[in-house]
Amino acid sequence: MFSKKLKITLIFLGDIAILYGSLTLTLLIRYGQANFYDSFGAHLKPFSVIFILWILILYLSDLYSDKFLKNNLETARIFSISIAINIFLSVAAFYAFEPFFQLTPKTNLLIFSLIFGVGGYFWRIILSKFFIAKGIQKQVLIIGASPIISFIIEHLKNNPQTGYNIKLWIKEPLSEKKFPELSANIIDNKIETIITESHIKKDSSAAKIIYRLLPLGIQIIDLADFYELLFQKVPLKELEETWFIEQITTSRKLYEIAKRFLDIVLSLILNIIFLPLTIGIAFLIKFTSSGPIIYKQERIGKNDKPFILYKFRTMKINHSGPLWTAEKDVRLTFVGKILRYTHLDEIPQLYNILKGSISLIGPRPERSELAKHYSQLPYYEIRHIIKPGLTGWAQLNYKPSSSLEEAQEKLQYDIYYVKNRSLFLDFLIILKTIKYIFISHQ
After folding, report:
1. DSSP letter assigned to residue 61
2. How far apart are CA 76 and CA 67, in angstroms?
3. CATH of segment(s) 138-231
């Protein structure tokens, strides 16, 4: 049976094999068997470097996730776009760094791209059918009457490639009287996994019934954990204070030291890289609208402590309006619209990172007024046990909130990050932020 990590590994290893297989087939087509070994030796090193770029673009396109592990028009579209981007970047790399690569392939790159495009796409179709094949999917029994269970069932129905099939759903309370029937149903339907609401396991009589199912080789998963596995966010409405006590670590010393070191190094490097752009933006703001170049705003940081956040000013001065920035907001200046669209208004926050008031990665710091408004949300204070960030998991997975309901949805991603924060997750967020800046403008 395939876990999510094993599934990703299988897709990744398949892509590696297809990349090198496509290169081999390309060279056989172009040069034949007689000159194959010489041509393969000349192409192996430069193409191996390019393959790293191809894998990165495929990852940033979410082609290693369940979402695009199926045969439909959207998967074909995203896969085609990623191949086109890879061709463009490969051509740029080969010609810009020709002394290093000692190769400027045109026909070979085109043939290779066509072969990999076909092979890589059909590899995903094969895996999709494999993961939904009989005997591969996990047969699941779900216990409970939570509203999110219907949502999960619908999601799994529409995404069978996730590898889970809800075979049985028990809504009524478990009873000792019905245990023989329950046990028989589990055996008949070859149930391997039981997903149950946490409060059911806390009921002593229900816990004893579930315990007696363990000898059948059943895996027991908490509903909140399963939801988190599927959607990479936490189901706040299903959680209680005990979950936070058990799952949330308030301090990770080694991680925090390493993260602070990386914050300082990366913010210094980015400040140097962006220095010419910073000067240019400052001149544009100064000479196109009245008011200060830098906009200062009080935000709420770690442990609910306020601090001053710095951004390039994007709005007209003395112009009141709602707390949230609306689409086509009349308060934005012409330069401000460009800065907001490109996210360049956030460059001064690198100074906040150097000061230590924010980190590169973390929950987005909210304005004091908004933080006070959002504090009515259950468990909102948990996002403040760590430093806020310039970018974060919630920003990448959900649009900027413009209502209390949307803020609650975004909070589910923030708490997921707080629970699972690590240098590896931070690295993935940085990679996805690059995609967000250049592709997604929400």
Report:
1. T
2. 12
3. 3.40.50.20
In 213-294, alpha helices (H): 223-231, 241-247, 253-288
Both tokens assigned to 216: 């059948």
The answer to whether the CB of 243 falls within 8 A of the CB of 322 is no
Query: Token pair of 11, please?
Result: 């897709």
What are the C-alpha distances in Å from 160 to residues 12, 127, 154, 202?
20, 12, 10, 31
Cα–Cα dist 299/283, whole Å: 26
Burial 70-79 (b: 16+ CB within 10 A, else e): beeeebeebb
Residue 392's SS3 state is coil
pTM, 2 dp: 0.84
State the amino acid at position 357 in one-letter form. Answer: S
Give per-residue pLDDT as tens, 227-279.
999 999 999 988 999 999 999 999 899 999 999 999 999 999 999 999 999 99
Pairing relationship of beta strands 164-170 and 138-143 according to DSSP bridges: parallel
- Domain segments of the chain as ranges: 4-131, 138-231, 253-438
Q: How far apart are CA 13 and CA 23, in angstroms?
A: 16
